[in-house]
Q: What sequence folds into this?
């Protein structure tokens, strides 16, 4: 707005670097809000796990962006929901989206169809009453359950990345080891907050980045030394994207009051990497890998 001449100080056009002093008069010509961008239909088949007249839960595939942004204005999950004819809440800025998943994270997401339901679910989320459990394959080993409590904010050197920063927003992640392999662990990860890239940043922060993470990889297979290095490289080659999957979602339905528990198995595009990590090709023939590893919490 300053660059466009919409701000004056003492009736003179303001400079962005200008320092105000006591007594200055500042005037701002506030522009009209731009019309909301219309969501164009995107013909994409969505895997619906649960649906009623108030909300739906879907299994988002890896590679699908959740909402329109530069570079992906018309080929997102929201565009696909519009093409499907799904009613979406409108009063929150991003129609229907109660929470989000990264582009290359797969798994369960809630979509609200009305503003009342959206507000109710957002309140439950803020009160930590919606259970979100992820399966993650990480580099290295974690010996016992732990909590990662560290604030997360925009990396000041790279605004597209997040980082643990003293000035960041509070974030809490619960981590439990499920299975130990040669160079990796399969984890059960629960969110107590929902910061951008939270799980990826927190696990990288404690020295155990997610296998296949292109941003917070911490060196990937190069971090593995000795005889395990060749195995680590094989795991990396078998991993097409970050090995992170939203496997379980549990919440109280905002209208019926019933507890809703939904589960989605380890995704097909990550089956090979898990088999390589476990050095067990027989896993490829098992239909329910998370059940096999006793992943699902009670």
A:
């Amino acid at each position: 707005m300053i660059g466009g001449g919409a701000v004056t100080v003492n009736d003179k056009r303001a400079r962005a670097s200008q320092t105000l002093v006591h007594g200055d008069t500042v005037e701002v010509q506030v522009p009209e809000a731009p019309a909301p961008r219309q969501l164009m239909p995107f013909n994409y088949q969505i895997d619906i796990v649960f649906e009623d007249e108030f909300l739906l839960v879907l299994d988002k595939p890896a590679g699908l962006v959740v909402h329109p942004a530069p570079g992906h204005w018309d080929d997102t999950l929201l565009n696909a929901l519009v093409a499907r004819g799904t009613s979406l809440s409108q009063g929150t800025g991003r129609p229907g989206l109660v929470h989000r998943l990264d582009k290359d994270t797969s798994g369960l997401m809630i979509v609200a169809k009305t503003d009342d339901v959206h507000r109710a679910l957002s309140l439950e989320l803020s009160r930590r009453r919606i259970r979100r459990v992820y399966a993650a394959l990480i580099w290295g080993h974690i010996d016992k359950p732990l909590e990662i409590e560290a604030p997360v904010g925009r990396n000041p050197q790279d605004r597209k990345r997040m980082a643990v920063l003293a000035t960041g927003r509070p974030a809490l992640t619960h981590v439990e080891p499920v299975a130990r392999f040669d160079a990796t662990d399969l984890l059960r990860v629960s969110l107590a907050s929902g910061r951008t890239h939270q799980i990826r940043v927190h696990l990288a922060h404690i020295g155990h980045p997610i296998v296949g993470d292109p941003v917070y990889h911490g060196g990937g297979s190069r971090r593995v030394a000795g005889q395990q290095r060749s195995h680590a490289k094989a795991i990396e080659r078998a991993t097409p994207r970050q090995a992170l999957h939203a496997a379980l979602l549990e919440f109280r339905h905002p209208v019926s009051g019933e507890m809703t528990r939904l589960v989605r198995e380890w995704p097909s595009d990550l089956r090979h990497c898990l088999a390589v990590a476990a050095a067990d090709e027989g896993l490829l023939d098992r239909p329910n890998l998370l059940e096999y590893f006793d992943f699902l919490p009670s």
Notes: The first strand starts at residue 7 and ends at 9. DSSP finds six helices and 14 strands in the chain.
